[in-house]
């Protein structure tokens, strides 16, 4: 009945997503700084991060899509990303959203291809998405404590 | 005290040596908290599902402690370029430990006969209705009516509920929260969840807009009309 019942589910999702993104970004940055990863699952972390970035691209670029296949992709992306997270990214990059989406797409492709180095713009994009996911998880967590 | 001076100088810069020292201190403090919470969780002596909750919370803390130990052993924690990323990981770990400390430990350390009875009643309702969920722990200590924490299979009800049958339907409602959170796609497919969430999101936006509209109307009626009345009463003619 109380909000906490619903918010706790939102928190679980937001927290998992934030952790996947943070660990993935860390794995990518370590590779770019030539720091060996202590975890053997660096490849899994990169794949998971690439999947999240692709979902972000879909959620940001196909929002107004009307055709069935785009709607299906948006549904899948929305199952992974909360609308609050997408709104916060849109708000953060409202002035140059199109360029941002292009940077995210390039970052996702570079991460999917092992050994491809990421440029500064792509690394900055990763930081922004990790920051947004982290802020969203913290926001939902605080809401859960208050409710 | 040269060591102290060096540390203070580092704190002045965002990426100076003080920042990662601070991160290490945070991690060490959290590791200590993990050990304390784990010990207390393993000390509680509770029956049935409550014991499962104690073990689940202890596992959560132990996994956090393992991650902290690997982070502390990793020289990359001292790399200034990675401090923001490690801080994000620290926040998630801290939340995990807080969940066990704030939402499981207090209830388990104060678990009473009423809680045992409610948990048994819940288990019987679930068995009779053949609801496909793990029987939750039900505690009678809520200050905000009924609530559930699905990831801990925990339901809290007001303190007076063990002596009353009127809240049984609300208990069933909380089972629903656990059922929905159960990782079984056949219960609630993604497209249904997204559609339901979208509907609520739109309804929430409409309610916010309606509230803003009401506030603006009240502002106009009370304040602006007051100013106009005030202006009219001024002894000035245009």
Could you walk me through the main structural features you see in this protein, from its secondary elements to its overall organization?
The complex is a heterodimer of chains A (147) and B (238). Chain A is mostly helical and 147 residues long. Chain A has six helices and no strands. Chain A has one domain (3-146). The longest helix of chain A has 30 residues, at 3-32. Chain A is globular and about 50 Å long. The termini of chain A are close together. With 238 residues, chain B is mostly helical. Chain B is built from seven helices and three strands; from the N terminus they run αααααβββαα. Chain B has helices at 2-12, 17-43, 48-73, 83-109, 113-128, 168-181, 190-233; strands at residues 137-142, 147-149, 154-158. In chain B, a hairpin with a 4-residue loop joins strand 2 (147-149) and strand 3 (154-158). The longest helix of chain B has 44 residues, at 190-233. Residues 1-14 of chain B have low confidence and may be disordered. Chain A binds chain B through residues 1-6, 8-9, 12, 15, 18-19, 22-23, 25-26, 29-30, 33, 35, 38-39, 75-76, 78-79, 83, 127, 130-131, 134, 137-138, 141, 145, 147, and chain B through 70, 73-74, 76, 79, 81-82, 84-86, 88-89, 91-92, 95, 102, 142, 144-151, 170, 173-174, 177, 180-181, 190-191, 193-194, 197-198, 201.
Give a short synopsis of this structure.
The complex is a heterodimer of chains A (147) and B (238). Chain A has 147 residues and is mainly α.
Report low-confidence residues of chain A grouped into runs of 5 or more: none
**Principal-axes shape call of chain A:** globular
Count of separate structural domains of chain B: 3
* Count of alpha/pi helices of chain A: 6
Average the pLDDT over all residues of chain A and give the rounded result. 85
Oligomer: heterodimer
- Distance between the ends of chain B: 76 Å
Task: Report the radius of gyration of chain B as a whole number of Å.
Answer: 27 Å
**What topology, given as strand order, has the largest sheet of chain B?**
1-3-2
The percent of residues in helical segments of chain A reads over 70%
- Structural class of the helix and strand makeup of chain B? mainly alpha
Cα-atom radius of gyration of chain A:
16 Å
């Amino acid at each position: 009945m109380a909000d906490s019942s619903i918010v706790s589910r939102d928190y679980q999702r937001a927290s998992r997503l934030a952790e996947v993104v943070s660990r993935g970004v860390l794995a990518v940055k370590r590779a770019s700084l030539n720091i060996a990863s202590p975890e053997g699952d660096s490849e899994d972390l990169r794949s998971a991060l690439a999947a999240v970035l692709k979902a972000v691209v879909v959620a940001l670029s196909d929002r107004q899509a009307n055709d069935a296949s785009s709607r299906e992709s948006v549904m899948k992306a929305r199952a992974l990303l909360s609308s609050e997270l997408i709104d916060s990214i849109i708000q953060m990059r409202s002035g140059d959203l199109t360029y941002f989406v292009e940077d995210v797409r390039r970052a996702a492709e570079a991460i999917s291809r092992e050994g491809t180095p990421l440029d500064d713009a792509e690394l900055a994009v990763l930081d922004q998405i990790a920051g947004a996911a982290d802020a969203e998880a913290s926001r939902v967590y605080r809401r859960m404590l208050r409710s | 005290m040269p060591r102290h001076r060096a540390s203070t100088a580092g704190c002045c810069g965002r990426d100076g040596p003080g920042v990662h020292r601070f991160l290490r201190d945070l991690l060490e403090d959290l590791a200590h908290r993990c050990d304390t919470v784990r010990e207390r969780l393993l000390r509680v002596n509770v029956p049935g599902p409550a014991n499962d909750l104690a073990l689940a919370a202890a596992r959560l803390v132990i996994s956090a402690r393992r991650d902290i130990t690997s982070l502390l052993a990793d020289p990359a924690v001292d790399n200034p370029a990675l401090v923001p990323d490690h801080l994000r990981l620290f926040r998630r770990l801290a939340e995990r430990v807080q969940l066990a400390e704030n939402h499981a430990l207090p209830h388990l350390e104060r678990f009473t006969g009423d809680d045992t009875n409610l948990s048994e009643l819940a288990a019987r309702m679930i068995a009779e209705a053949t609801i496909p969920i793990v029987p939750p722990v039900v505690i009678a200590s809520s200050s905000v009516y009924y609530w559930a924490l699905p990831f801990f299979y925990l339901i809290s009800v007001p303190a007076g509920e063990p002596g009353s049958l009127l809240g049984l339907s609300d208990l069933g409602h909380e089972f629903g929260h656990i059922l929905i959170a159960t990782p079984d796609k056949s219960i609630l497919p993604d497209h249904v969840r997204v559609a339901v969430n979208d509907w609520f999101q739109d309804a929430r936006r409409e309610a916010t807009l309606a509230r803003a509209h009401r506030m603006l109307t009240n502002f106009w009626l009370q304040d602006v009309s007051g100013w106009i009345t005030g202006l009219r009463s001024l002894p000035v003619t245009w």
